[in-house]
């Protein structure tokens, strides 16, 4: 309107200086606003992306471990990187889309003030543009979901290959593995092509409709100019407003970005919504011995019972070895005992207090874990061992490293305890010993060791066990064991078979039973031992050995 007014004054020989000044001011303001929009868009996108990643990662880390099983490492990586980035751009895309629609809507209103006939001409063609955008959004949403799913599949396959790179190289199967990783690439390419076709179709349709609307509006405006209903400046304003009003068709690109962001947000929200363990408000009574009890515990997975433990008691300060064949439920019992998961029935008590009633801080301060594959982070050796609910002192860190049998190799590192873990290649056994050191540094009343010494040789394992007994005398230990030597050194053994506690008692008494010895045997020897154990061929009510070596029904 300002340009049109300035043009009319110039054509009539009037003074258009003020109107030209306003025109320059509006143009400069538009440039400044475009720059501010770019700055705010970048800040908004970065902030939202960081927030989405943080919430998704927090949900993942707080989730019940069983709830994370459907998500492979590659899938999680894709959701936290590519999907979070797309989702982080959604708010800015939404704002840009709103702005892109406000401008044509405002232009349509302004056009009505200039001339109703030209406005009516533009308005008549808008439903076709809206229909194009609606179809585009629907079809694009379906394609984007499939595209993101295949992306995650490829990422998962690639990560599996990277983790097994040594095995692949040794087996000479690199070509086969490459084909396996890239097999979904054809589907990804087809989906990507489909998305581009949809986008191009929307742009092409809009590219035809918009010029037609502009030409039609210009023609109507020309007729109105010839009839004397419009001035030359008003015709210029009407044509420009008609072009702006036809900008509804240019929303396809922003709409596509918004659809991608929304579908990506669904994928990151799935991690946020993973169920977490609820915590109570109680703390453990001071000075407790750390007695562990499992009362009527039942754990189900997909409707199948994977663990049944009735009245299993581990006295405070004792070491209990959990033994059984692969798949017998050892890790499930360890997870339940340390409350990584809750049983579907029954309860787990520590010094008479249900674990489910403890605060999160109290639970994690008093119940510790050591795993076969610990995650130590990327700090220094001392920082990795000290990290925990309550940071350990330097003296405590050094003592824990000594107890774990890691002191000798740590002192050989370039900067000993201050050596960044990322700077030194550690063996599986060395890494595992640092994981044990961290568990020892934060040991409370109960320490659960789930296959935490699997990478140690027998002599080192024995030395670590002896040091643990001397330094963690007041800590109850639940050890998932695969070697008879570990079970022999324990105060009692919890023998699992097919998800049920078959017996609880000293190793020396259980060793008299061939079926128990077969747990530690391999191959044909295991089958033969089981077959010749006539005393063990009993129904489900098999006697259970007590802590004192007696047999009770």
Give a verbal description of the structure.
By secondary structure, the chain is an alpha/beta fold. Helices cover 59% and strands 11% of the residues. Strand 10 and strand 11 (500-505) form a beta hairpin.
Quick structural summary:
With 553 residues, the protein is of the alpha/beta class. It has helices spanning 2-11, 17-62, 73-88, 90-114, 116-163, 165-171, 174-182, 185-226, 232-245, 252-272, 330-337, 360-366, 381-386, 394-403, 407-411, 428-441, 458-471, 484-489, 507-510, 514-519, 523-531; strands at residues 292-301, 304-309, 312-314, 319-323, 345-350, 353-354, 367-371, 446-450, 476-480, 492-497, 500-505, 544-545, 551-552.
Question: Which descriptors would you attach to this protein?
Answer:
553 residues, alpha/beta, 6-stranded mixed β-sheet, 5-stranded antiparallel β-sheet, elongated
